[in-house]
């Protein structure tokens, strides 16, 4: 029996915003009934303000899937489209007071539906996965999804990937392939000295920035009682927050300049650091 929070139970037993918006401005459909979870999210968007006026969902899945979908609709209402896109699957889980780790894939499904609905609103065609990119045939999970979810949630084991995507949770034949993908993602090494960086994909860039912060920047700050939190990466803009003794420090500006210099040297010379 899963240990559900009171809020998960409430959103499952009395879900909010069930249904479908007629003439919706954005529609996102993800998952598959065959694979056990499917979600359709419809959005009503005020085109003058770009704010989400209403959101409804229809889902096929477990208690966590229903609760996550309902929570998502509550989280996005009243936000602009860009603000809504900043909502992560972890934000959905946190809003519910947490989800069992084995059910985190339900929050990921919600995040994917939101991305699909916004793409539909903006008239952006949803990319068709290349043939052969499916890693887990039991749950139809692609390599791209595994990479994206692993990087966004700092996942490093096959079991964690299974919790967040279901991949590897069926016959188990793909577990070795998932291990190879994880090894590839987290094997990016920080150069010992500044080098002209090679062209990276967006996912590789995010992984490299995370790696540099964890191995090159955080230890130095922690040694002086400070810390750093990576908030978001938007193109060349890296949004961070200084924590601990670094908060309010008179030398915070110098620290930020040092972080920006390091990332420009090792990732991309156009990177700009923004502190929250």
Your description of this structure?
The chain has 276 residues and is of the alpha+beta class. The protein folds into three domains: 6-121, Sufe protein. Chain: A (Alpha-Beta Complex); 134-185, BFD-like [2Fe-2S]-binding domain (Arc Repressor Mutant, subunit A, Orthogonal Bundle), CATH 1.10.10; 202-275, GMP Synthetase, Chain A, domain 3, CATH 3.30.300.130. It is built from ten helices and eight strands. A three-stranded antiparallel beta sheet has the order 1-2-3. A three-stranded mixed beta sheet has the order 6-7-8, with helices on one face. The protein starts with 5 loop residues before the first helix and ends with a strand. 35% of the residues are buried. Residues 189-197 have low confidence and may be disordered.
Helix content: 40-55%
Rough outline: globular
* Poorly predicted ranges: 189-197
**What name does CATH use for the topology of the largest domain?**
Sufe protein. Chain: A
